[in-house]
Amino acid sequence: MSMVQRQVFMGLFISILLFLLISMGYFFTFPLSDWSELWDRQVMDIPFIISVPSICIAIGVLFGSISGLAWRRQLQTVDQMLHELEEGRQMESKDLHGVVELESISGRIGKIQKQMSEQVKLSQRLTTEKVEGMESQIQEIISQERNRLARELHDSVSQQLFAASMMMSAINETRPTSDDRETKQLKMVEEMIHQSQLEMRALLLHLRPVALKGKSLQEGMEELLSELAQKVSMIIHWKIEHFQLDKGVEDHLFRILQESVSNTLRHAKASKLDVLLIERDDLVILRVVDDGVGFDEGETKAGSYGMQNIYERALEIGGTIKIISVKNKGTRLEVKIPLLKKGEESDD
């Protein structure tokens, strides 16, 4: 039952009580000698038995409707404040028309919003400090390990593939031209080895250390997506707006993008990928959408570790994350991060 309906019923109940009180007072002042007088006695040229109940019901319905609409507006205001709080937005001052109880609720919501804003600022500051303090050492370790793996793969697997490719090429060149089954199979093996060489080169390329390294988030995203578009058959579109962010926030958003794109390449079987980075209403929005096979969010997936990593990174910088996936229609991942202005940071 809605607030307006509840207040209307309350008004009807009050109107019934009002009718009973008016009737008792009237009959006490002007006693009836016969019940038929209810039709003879008139109020505003209308029989008493009709006019008084009608007036009371009209007053009750009018009172209930006005009261219900007023309360609904107030509760909608509170609901809007809670929605803004949930989205991490800065709430504007709301007019609650002097209702003491609602003003108290509004005050408490404001305090919660202030506490959450302080926590977001603290989380982002700590993340930035941690990233700035450890980034150089961590990146050096990662770079060394990537280079080691790249050297080992190049010196072993890549060389063996090259040797196998040369041998198969020599065998096919020395064999007489024919369309027999064995010749077709040898050519197929040569093509498979050639394809494996291409994939190995792509793997060695991706083993290079991937980090922003002095670049902005937007530059790193554009470089990553542009390089990816040259190596895969998937159609990749991106829209990236340029704006300033803290180093820690940029690092986490970049790694969230890496993880989500990696999940798309490994699991989605998608033909199209759209990436969006924009700033709207004091929020940084990162959105990654594909048209792949999708997944059931309630099921445990092999890539759940990657999704958990995305959730943790978003929470570390005070953001929210929403994932919508429909089987055979694709997946949409959206991360929203509150954008703190310089003026707010200086207030601490």
Q: What is the gist of this entry?
A:
This protein is of the alpha+beta class.
Summarize the SSE layout with pairings.
Blueprint: H1 3-29, H2 37-40, E1 42-43, E2 46-47, H3 48-87, H4 100-174, H5 181-206, H6 217-231, E3 235-240, H7 247-268, E4 272-280, E5 283-290, H8 304-316, E6 320-326, E7 330-338, H9 342-345
Parallel strand pairs: 3-4
Antiparallel strand pairs: 1-2, 4-5, 5-7, 6-7
Helix pairs in contact: 1-3, 3-4, 4-5, 4-7, 6-7, 7-8
Structure, described:
With 348 residues, the chain is of the alpha+beta class. Among the domains are: 3-87; 215-348, Heat Shock Protein 90 (2-Layer Sandwich), CATH 3.30.565.10. It is built from nine helices and seven strands. It has helices spanning 3-29, 37-40, 48-87, 100-174, 181-206, 217-231, 247-268, 304-316, 342-345, and strands at residues 42-43, 46-47, 235-240, 272-280, 283-290, 320-326, 330-338. The strands form two sheets. The chain has a five-stranded mixed beta sheet with strand order 3-4-5-7-6, with helices on one face. Strand 3 (235-240), helix 7 and strand 4 (272-280) form a beta-alpha-beta unit. The two termini are 46 Å apart. The mean pLDDT is 76.
What would the keywords be for this entry?
348 residues, single chain, Heat Shock Protein 90, alpha+beta
